[in-house]
Every structure is written in C-alpha cells, then in structure tokens.
Write a structure and sequence with these properties.
single chain; 376 residues; alpha/beta; Membrane-bound Lytic Murein Transglycosylase D, Chain A; TIM Barrel; 2 domains; 8-stranded parallel β-barrel; 34% helix; 20% strand; globular
Length: 376
C-alpha cells in the first residue's frame, strides 16, 4: 500500500522489482503519480504463477468494445459472452445493433469460447418481464426461440448460450426453469452449452421481483453452469457503498452451494466502480460509472487518501469537486484477492466479469498468478 512520500522508484527498490515492471503491471503512466492508500501488485519479471486451481473465466462485452481492449483481455478468458441478443414476444431473435462476427472470430484466435448472451430487453432498453412471460409460458414461442438460437449458433460459430433474464415474475418461475431445461437439452444435443445468470439470493424464499422467479436448485440442475451475479449492491441509483462487498458475496455463495453443484458455479466480479455525489437522496442521486484505473486517477487529482473497508473488503475515498462532496467505491488488487479467496474456499467452477469494456491489467495479472485459466 502506498504511503505518503512513496514513489515508483522507492517502491521498486524496496521490493526489488524494476520500475518498468511495477508501472506496467499496475498501469501507472508518466509522470508516475501515486495516491496515498493505493494498492499495488508487485510481481517480478517472469513471475507468472498459474499453478493454482483450474478455473473457468468468463467476461461479458458489447460489440463496441475496442479491438485493443479485447485483444488484451482474451488471453485470460475461457469464455467471451457477447452482449446481447434479444427476442420478440413470439420468440424471434433480435440481433445486436453492431456486428458481433468480428468478436466471435477474434475469440477463436485466442482459444476462447464465444458465447451468445440472450436478454429480454424491451424497446426502452430495460429488462421486460412481459417478454419473458410471453415466451416461457407458450411452448410454440419457446420452441421458436430455441430453434432460432440454434440457427444463429450454427451460422455464426457460437459454442454456447448464456440466458440472462432478470425480474422474472414469481408466477413464471417454473415456466422459466422449463425453458432453460429445454434450451439446455437442445443445445447439448447439438454440441453447445448453456449457462444461466442468477440474481444474488441468500435463501430459497427470498422476496422481491429480482429473486422470486429464480429457483436456484432447479436451474442449477437444468443448465450446464450458472453465474451468481454477486455485484451491484452499490449501483447507479442506490446508496453509496461497495459494489461487491465480500461479506455479502459470501452469503450468496454459502446459500448457492447448498442448492447447486459448486463445480457449476461461477462467481460474478465487477470490473468497475461508482462515484456518488453526496448527500445521497433516494430517487434523485445518480452515481457515475467509472473504471478502476480512473478511480485512482480521481483520487490523485483531488489529493484524496484511499481507504479500505475491512468488512466489505473494498477500497473507497471521498473528495470535493465544485463544492460537492463525492464518495467513490471501486475494485483493487486487495478486494479482488479477497474475492479470489472465495473461489478456493468454496471450490467454485470459476468467475464471470461484468464487464470487460475497460482494461484493468492488475486484475488479470493477479488472476493468472493465482489460478490456471482453462482454455478451449
């Protein structure tokens, strides 16, 4: 952790690494400014690790991701989930606005599996449970959607489907499970896999629209794998707090492994942070989404001291801009390492990153140091 008066030269000398290695691994650019409280990853040249548990690593990306960013990230991914395909009320597929073929082709160059992500977005760009209801409760519409998926998989070269349906009506819970089961059977018969994204539940009877439509045990049996969406406790319209507090992530995993084979579970990790103007007012305050490198730069520019919440296992800081106080929560190598510990503790299948649109090298260096990443 950076202390007052530290420089890249003094830190490199203390830990016997080159300045070039230190700045490269941590994405520190000239003039090499540091924030007090900043966590750095110290790896010697040639120190690669990768001897730990074998894990599956998935990353979500939109088709407008920069070519450079995707190329940097693909060596660390088992799966690339392209976000996303939609569908109509009668089960016809809606393609992404931008071409996804280049992402499929590029992923295969890096021995990464391209995955088609299916989402029920309405015209307003939000999750639409009426769309879900229309398809999962009508066998003809469901079959149409599954057959359309199969056609696109064959035409474009996808090797798996990720079903990311949110805000499912409680009354549609069993219908949704049946849809996932039928999709999995069809895809498996044709050599493809199916994963399903699950809201972060801590009990079977958890109330709320985000949770009631997801049956952990049944979906864990129906799909080949699941992603626990263990992030967004702190979110755009919510109160200022850690995006993925480890204590709450742990609660979700502890429940998840009682319902689902742990070798099918991928833990969600956020690759971003939020900047809240204070004071927080429900229904009014909107946090800005920021990258993890950007968060440190904000701290540097505003002479803020980065602190670390020992319960949430997450870094944060406050600063003033234009007379308004701000609070920032983000991820660093300490918070990521705490999450990686859960993979080992619970012997999970792996991790899924939402999302990989911004390059955060310390994460990937640490991940590949601690684990052996499965490649196709």
């Amino acid at each position: 952790m950076v202390s007052q008066g530290d420089t890249v030269d003094s830190i490199a000398e203390e830990f016997n690494v080159t300045v070039e290695r230190l700045t490269s691994v941590n994405q520190i650019v000239y003039p090499y400014r540091l924030a007090v409280g900043q966590a750095l990853l110290i790896l010697n040249e040639g120190e690669t690790g990768g001897t730990g548990k074998e894990i599956n690593v998935n990353g979500y990306a939109y088709p407008f991701i920069r070519d450079w960013t995707l190329r940097q990230t693909l060596p660390y991914l088992t799966d690339l989930s392209v976000f996303s395909y939609g569908f109509t009320y009668d089960g016809n597929l809606i393609y992404p606005q931008l071409s996804d073929q280049w992402m499929i082709n590029l992923s295969k160059e890096y021995n990464t599996r391209p995955i088609l992500t299916l989402t029920p977005f309405g015209p307003d760009g939000n999750f639409n449970n009426r769309l879900i209801h229309s398809v999962v409760t009508n066998s003809s519409y469901a079959s149409n959607l599954i057959n359309n998926l199969l056609t696109v998989m064959r035409q474009k070269g996808y090797v798996g489907v990720d079903i990311d349906f949110e805000y499912i009506l409680g009354e549609d819970r069993d219908y949704f499970t049946e849809f996932v089961r039928n999709t999995t059977e069809t895809m498996n018969d044709n050599g493809y896999t199916v994963s399903v994204a699950l809201a972060p539940k801590t009990s079977a009877d958890q109330r709320g629209l985000l949770y009631e439509g997801k049956d952990y045990r049944a979906l864990g049996e129906a799909a080949n794998s699941v992603l626990l969406m263990t992030y967004e406790w702190g979110y755009t319209y919510g109160p200022n707090m850690a995006v993925a507090p480890v204590n709450q992530v742990r609660e979700v995993i502890e429940y998840g492994v009682t319902e689902i084979d742990r070798e099918k579970i991928n833990m969600g990790i956020p690759n971003y942070g939020y900047d809240w103007p204070l004071p927080y007012e429900r229904g009014t305050t909107r946090a800005a989404t920021i990258g993890n490198i950007e968060a440190v730069q904000i701290a540097i520019d505003n002479n803020a001291v980065i602190q670390y919440d020992q319960v949430a296992q997450s870094p944060f800081f406050r600063y003033f801009r234009g007379g308004t106080e701000h609070e920032v929560w983000f991820e660093d190598v300490r918070s990521l390492d705490a999450k990686f510990n859960l993979i080992d503790e619970f012997q999970l299948m792996g991790v899924g990153y939402w999302q990989i649109m911004q390059w955060f090298r310390p994460n990937w260096e640490l991940l590949s140091y601690r684990f052996k990443i499965i490649k196709s």
